[in-house]
Amino acid sequence: MRFTLVGDSMTIGRAGDFTWRYRMWQHLDATSGAPFSIVGPRTELYDTEAGAPVSDAYGAPDFPAGARAHLAGWGEGWLHMAPVIADVVTAYRTDVLLVSLGLIDLGFYTDSGQTADNVRAFISAARTANPRLRMVLLPVIPNIRAESDAPFAAECERFNELLAKAVADLDAPASPVLLASRPAGYDIHEDTYDGTHPGPSGEHALAGAFADAMHQAWGLGGPYVRRP
Questions:
Q1: pTM of the prediction?
Q2: CB 5 within 8 A of CB 71
Q3: What is the CATH number of domain 2-218?
Q4: pLDDT tens by residue, 48-97
Q5: Which residues does 110 contact at the CB level (< 8 Å), separation at least 6?
Q6: Is residue 77 within 8 Å of 42, Cβ to Cβ?
C-alpha cells in the first residue's frame, strides 16, 4: 500500500523537526503487517534561515530516506494542492492520501466557502488519477491567531462544518473518504512550539488522529501507540 502525506507547514516541518510524518512511518512500520511505502515528489524540510524547503536535517536519524517523501509545502494549502494532486497520484501510484490542510488557506488565501470548494476540486481531481483512492482528511485545528481574531476563528469553525459536509457528500464505497477526529486534548500552548506548528507531543497527536481513523474504519494498522 502506497501512502502520500499532504499538507502545509505543519506537515513539511522545519529543519530539526521529527515531523508527524516520521511518527506515521513509525506507526505503519510497527503495525501495518504488510509492505507499505510513503511516496511523493518532495523529501525536504523547510529551512527558516534560507526561507525555502532545502533542508534534510530531520530530528530522527532513523527516518529512512525512502520514507521521507511527501507533498507538503510551507505556505501551501488546498488552493495549491488541488491543481497538482492528480499528477502526483498518477506518478506515485498512491493508494491512500492523508491530508492536513486548510489553516493557511483561511489565514491568507480563501474564505471558508472557497476553501471547501477547493477541497471538492482536490478530491475530484485525485479520483481521476485513481478511482479507488482512499482519503483521510484532518479538520483545521485553529491556531493562536484564532484566540484574538474572532472572524478568523469563525471561519475555521465554518470550514470544518463544510469539510464534514464535503466528506459526507463525496464518500463512496469504491473510494472512501474519512474525516479524522481532532486529536483529543490537543492544546496549542502545549502541543506546538509557536501556537501553530506541532512539537513532539503534537506530532504524535496528529499522526494518531490519522492512524486511529484508518484502523477504526478500514482495519489498517493498529491503534496508535506513541513511540520514542
A1: 0.97
A2: yes
A3: 3.40.50.1110
A4: 999 999 999 999 999 999 999 999 999 999 999 999 999 999 999 999 99
A5: 77, 78, 79, 118
A6: no
